[in-house]
Amino acid sequence: MSGPRLRLHPHQPAAVEAIVRGLELPADGRVPDCGLRGQLVSATGTGKTITAAVAAKRLVPHGMIGIIVPTLDLIAQTVAQWRTAGHTAPMVAVCSLGDDPYLEQLDVRCTTHPTRLALWTAGGGPLVVIATYASLVGQDDDGEAELGVASSEDARGGPGVLEQALRGTWGQRMPPFDLLIIDEAHRSSGDAAKAWAAVHDQDRIPAKRRLYMTATPRLWQAPPGSAEQEDGRGRGGRRGRGAAVTPKSAAAAESSGPKSGTPAGLVASMDDVRLFGPVLHELGLMEACERGILAGFEIDVLEIREWGDPGPDADPELVRGRRLAALQAALLTHADAVGARSLMTFHTRTLDALAFARALPETAAELRATDPHTYPKRVGADWLCGEHPAAERREVLARFADGLDEEGWVVDFGILSSCRVLGEGVDIRGTRGVDGVVFADPRCSPVEIVQIIGRGLRQNPGEGKVARLIVPVFLHPGEDPEDMMASSSYRPVVALLQGLRAHDERAVESMVLAARGAGGQATGVLALDPNRPEEEDRDADDDVASEDAAAEAEEQDGAGDAAAADDRRRKGASNPEMRVRKPSEPLLRFSLPRNPDVIAAFLRTRVLYPDSEVWLAGYNALRHWVADHGDARVPLDAVVPLGATARDAADVDESTTETYALGAWVSEQRRAFKLGALKAWRAELLDELGMVWSVADTRFHKNLAAARAYYDVHGTLAAPRDAEVDGVRVGHFLSNLRRTGALAGYPEREKDLRAIDKDWNPGWPADWQRAYVYVKQLIDDGEKLEVLLPGVTVFGDDIGTWITRQQRPEVWDALTDRQQELLEGLGITPKADERAETGDGSWKALSAFDKALAALRQYVEREGTAKVPRGHVEHVVLADGADPVEIRLGVALSNLKSPARRAKLTDHQRAALTEAGLELP
């Protein structure tokens, strides 16, 4: 059968050409004894499978092709992609998926019997045989086996199914391969005596050509000791493997084992051209991100403080359970902060993946009950492991990728937990895709880390997403994050960075360069600690200091960008003609504030990452404009020299004399922002430069500056309508903004005003608020209320007369409860009313205290107790036939018990409350 054809992405033709050149037979047709061999080293998610399929059609259009993959899931996925690439030849899968309807639909026959395999393939090509690595492992005598996930790499014994079919069985023999493609080839490296290493042996698995494909080439050195040491026997099995796995950067394998010594056995290292051949084409992780092939990414270090020290004797399972619960809450908070809607969590224990997925919806519901604005309403959570049938795994993956739950409803937030089943090669695409991955368990090898990262970096062409790589760090009680270099809590971050460096050294190098350029200023990167209060009161001096530090850090960040750009120029990072994205350095975020010097030592930095060279030129031009003019108010016709703006760009000639229409570029950013088409991180970058998004914004910020100046003098934004500051009619400005709906659609403006004065728009007249603030300032400065008599003025307002008026019973009763509470906090109470004790006077004439006292007496008489729930409302009847009046008795009594209110009660009022049955603290 044939499926829809696809067009190669711009980076793939070069890879196809390199493979064809490297594996094309010489003109005389003679094949070397070991066959032709070569490597395709390309970042995960860059389309190696399609590239190999297209190259195979050109190399051996009618030949015998073999494909080795690590898992059952990859068999179905690879077959589908080869069909899409135009391969219509018969296909045979050496696996146990004979009843899989999806493979039947793709016209693939399945077997695990060597004789049947030899019979089906005896006629030769055109034919494609696809098998898992398990087919290289010796099987039972009857030849029947369940060949699924390749988990027996160290098995020794007789020949596997492929080798038996190639040797010949019962008079049938499978012909040698014209092309053998070994996907995830790093799995065949290491111990040269293990079963999977048979794929290198020309006598056992004959092939004219071999193409090894991997994103993570592994370079090995034999350790001292016996071969059994490398095999892991006596060292705790596979997890205790003793061989030194040395990625391209030797430093990335510091924890992998010894690096030197006399080899005790043969090893298969991917730098051995006799076994793996030369590297025919290479595409690194950072280059793939720079060119837009893969998504840019941010590493979010989610620092979670543990509630208490479990102690050395604590049950490990209890500790794991507590951490999983804390991680769930932290992830939901973090997802809201960064806008993530779909995350994958990776665990090393099946039970952890199951527990995480099953408990998440309940956790989300509990959190939403406390804060419905932050936490999602509909949460979808599922999990997968190797025991799930292949069809079910495909169904769950498709549902997750489309953002659906089991019932087909669209979820607000989706989680897919897994345990060692969704690593290598699995391509997860849908209407929602994958926003990020979570390393829920730090016990991952560098190769596993890179493969997990690949699940999040895949993107559709031109999508421009930013994937999130989330690493939870559990801080012990009292642990200082500044001590991270010596803290075992940060081992998961170290493991992730080592894995990244194994994939591409530049990923970590760029972090170091930018971090060193940040100087020594302390900076708060992102406050996402789930146990940290959302709002913290800070005095004005601290705010100013923080702003100054941030400004200095921003200047230093610019210097760091320049250093990184210079380094890329020296190294020839990538071909500017081929690149369609600005270099998108990874951003490492810590959820707690950190000193950049500490971060640099820990390979952490913050790097700006525009999406394309065109956008970068405009951004750099605006940055220089701000540096020269002090603001980002750029006229529409502004034109600047392009050479001056390109000094920090890696691919622009510094000697150019061209000009750049900066005004037009800024106008285009405003238009995109208004249409909602501007990427959020682009808007953030522009905001850091003080971007003026509209002419109206310019006027607003000018008036806001005047309002801030007024507040600095008066302590309030409740200005009279005729107030002016430096010629700006600030009173008129604030009065207009207080109108209903004046700030609809402008939440940032509301935020800016509240940042100056949280009571800038009270629920009562501004004149009242202004007088209250003046009185409070005097009392806070030590003035006595008794001396604030009529005639005492502040800035022209007679506050003495204002106080006397508030004490009048008819005025007092017209105030809101909040206004009364504010006045009582200053010691201002209404004039005493003798009718309060009799209960037969005018209800409106009673003070708030007397109303509460009457309600309390009625409640005690009916209920027999003075313990009143806080939310209780008492309906008080003063006289027969009168309408009941609602009194919020619970709130009133709670307020009376507060220290501030209690201190202001008179002896007469205390006695009345005691008589009514209320015991005051």
Describe the structure.
With 921 residues, the protein is an alpha/beta fold. It has 7 domains: 35-220 and 273-283, 3-Layer(aba) Sandwich (Rossmann fold), CATH 3.40.50; 223-265, no CATH class; 292-536 and 544-601, P-loop containing nucleotide triphosphate hydrolases (Rossmann fold, 3-Layer(aba) Sandwich), CATH 3.40.50.300; 613-688, no CATH class; 695-756, no CATH class; 766-825, no CATH class; 843-916, no CATH class. 40% of the residues lie in helices and 12% in strands. An 8-stranded parallel β-sheet has the order 4-3-5-2-6-8-1-12, sandwiched between helices. Strands 15-16-14-17-18-13-19 form a 7-stranded parallel β-sheet, with helices on both faces. A two-stranded antiparallel ribbon has the order 7-11. α1 packs across α2 (48-59) and α10 (316-338) crosses α11.
Number of helices: 32
Supply the CATH superfamily name of the largest domain: P-loop containing nucleotide triphosphate hydrolases
Mean pLDDT score, rounded?
Answer: 77
Q: Cα distance, first to last residue?
A: 85 Å
Q: Catalogue the unreliable spans.
A: 141-155, 222-265, 516-584, 603-611, 643-657, 834-841
Tell me roughly what share of residues is in helical segments.
Answer: 25-40%
What is the CATH topology classification name of the largest domain?
Rossmann fold
Structural class: alpha/beta
Beta-strand share of residues:
5-15%
Number of DSSP strands? Answer: 25
Question: Number of domains in the coordinates?
Answer: 7
CATH class membership of the largest domain: Alpha Beta
Shape by Cα distribution: elongated
Main β sheet profile: 8 strands, parallel
Q: What would CATH call the architecture of the largest domain?
A: 3-Layer(aba) Sandwich
InterPro entries: Helicase/UvrB_N, Helicase_assoc, Helicase_ATP-bd, Helicase_C-like, Helicase_Restrict-Modif_Enz, P-loop_NTPase
Organism: Mangrovactinospora gilvigrisea
Domain Helicase ATP-binding: 29-217
Region (Disordered): 217-264, 523-582
